Amino acid sequence: MEALRALPSVDQVLASDAGRGLIAIYGRAATLAALRARLEAMRAALKAGDLADAACLPARLAADLADAARPRLRPVLNLSGTILHTNLGRAVLADDAIAAASAAMANPLALEFSLETGGRGERDDHLRGLLCELTGAEDATVVNNNAAAVLIALNTFGQGREAVVSRGELIEIGGAFRMPDIMVRAGVRLIEVGTTNRTHPRDYEGAIGPETGLILKVHTSNYRIEGFTAEVSAPRLAGIARKAGVPLLHDLGSGSLIDLSQLGLRREPTVAEAVAEGADLVTFSGDKLLGGPQAGFILGRRDLIAAINRNPLKRALRLDKIRIAALEATLRLYRDPDRLAERLPTLRHLSRPLAEITAQAERLAPLLAPLLPEGFAAAPCACDSQVGSGALPTDTLPSAGLRLTGQGGDAPDRLAGWLRSRATPAIGRIHDGALILDLRCLPSDDVLLAALGP
Ligand SMILES: *Cc1c(COP(=O)(O)O)cnc(C)c1O
Asked: CATH number of the domain at 77-86+349-452, please?
């Protein structure tokens, strides 16, 4: 076929100016692989009777290579209205934490080395002091995430034994974290007490026996049971546990180190309060309200923390140096609560004044409209943000954003797809026939205009 013969050879393309230019950027191996694939596709198209213009080859090849070179995991703009969006990586780190993590990546560091004695040190030592100072806990240890914190605590004290937990607290946290399943994997027999809506002290007392390894209390972080309800408070449960001589593990989930009512949010129990209430062990996440990297903290009695650290699972669940560095820098910010909201993005986003977000929406709407594809319009609107990651599940924060609309019932979906296809994708949410971009977490006007620009 004439057209097939008109296709250039691999060597011709590689030796051309365009080919040499691509090799300089992407390397010979990647350019060759992309070229072979592109030529194959053109041959197949020609054989099928489709048009395949050899003149387009260099441009197509350049686009293929640029596409393949784009990182799969790359920054997006979180305009979803969910501040701690698990699918968008939860907390954005503070500048200090980013700097500390970068230094930890680029240099050797005294991770398990004591600069005082020159002997061996412990990797948890870098965080233990700060955690105890900020929460009043006696001791602390750190693992990969809060799911791991719960797993290792259950396994350490409940393997081959029983854990007593209220039926009202057998939670599922998105994905595959279901408390009953975690218990099975931890080797613990689950003893459910009470009912979905009501659990009383006598329910726990009646279930405790010689096989009891621990009592578990779980903060119902992603739902709220309302109406005719009763739960046993942590201080009361701590008393029951002490009398029975078994540890009480309180899983807080999000766990805030500061009182959120200062920011006008609903009060959630702080970690320090949970410690003071007498739980023997308290667990919570690093990347939820705390605003740090993914991690799970276990605070509590020194003898119990030591037992957890002796569990061989600890080695499998331990943190890497990069996150320890970022966590240390994040926790240090909590020593100066007055400037925390300035420095910690999670708190900055949570406490951003509505008037400021509204002004931004009004400023951006007319600038954005001409950047949208033909036929779409943008208007400022009021909307509601939520905290996300299972914190304050029923509360919303009044916010402001842009309401993007177009012709046809699928207009919001088409626009969402277009926004996702940008070099810096912007993620909004579809609501009421429109695509809403909540501006609460937008770092600056320019970032959004650049993302939508040509
Ligand atoms: C989020 C959550 C977990 C899991 O924490 P990760 O850090 O996501 O592993 C466990 N328990 C509760 C109550 C939670 O809210």
From this structure: 3.90.1150.110
- Residue 160 in this model has a pLDDT that exceeds 90: yes
Mean pLDDT of the chain: 93
Half-sphere exposure (CA, 13 Å, Cβ side) for 3?
15
In order of 73, 118, 120, 318, 345, the CA distances from 103 in angstroms are: 22, 21, 21, 20, 20
Q: Range(s) for CATH 3.90.1150.110 in the chain? A: 77-86+349-452
For Cα atoms 185, 191, 196, give the angle at the middle one, nearest 5 degrees: 110
Residue whose CA lies nearest to ligand 1 atom number 10: 253
Helices 321-333, 125-135: axis angle to 10 degrees equals 30
What digits encode the pLDDT tens for the residues 224-238? Answer: 788 888 888 999 999
Q: pLDDT of 265-320, one tens digit each?
A: 778 789 999 999 999 999 999 999 999 999 999 999 999 999 999 999 999 999 99
Q: What is the pLDDT of residues 246-256, one digit of tens each?
A: 999 999 998 89
The CB of 212 under 6 Å from ligand 1? The reply is: no
Closest ligand 1 atom to residue 148 Cα is: 9
Least confident of 34-48, 172-186, 263-277, 379-393: 172-186
pLDDT over threshold 80, residue 393: no
CB 177 less than 6 A from any atom of ligand 1: yes
Q: Does the global pTM surpass 0.85?
A: yes
In angstroms, the CA 380 to CA 360 distance is 9
- Across 327-335, average pLDDT: 98
- Is the CB of residue 340 less than 8 Å from the CB of residue 119? no
- Residue corresponding to tokens 């999000």: 254
Question: Which CATH architecture describes the domain 95-343?
Answer: 3-Layer(aba) Sandwich (3.40)
Specify the ligand 1 atom closest to the Cα of 296: 7
Ligand 1 atom nearest to 150, measured from its CA: 10
Paired with 380 in beta bridges are 402
Q: How far is the CA of 360 from the centre of ligand 1 (A)?
A: 34
All CATH 3.40.640.10 domain ranges in the chain, comma separated: 95-343
Residue (of 278, 147, 276) closest to 221 by Cα position: 147
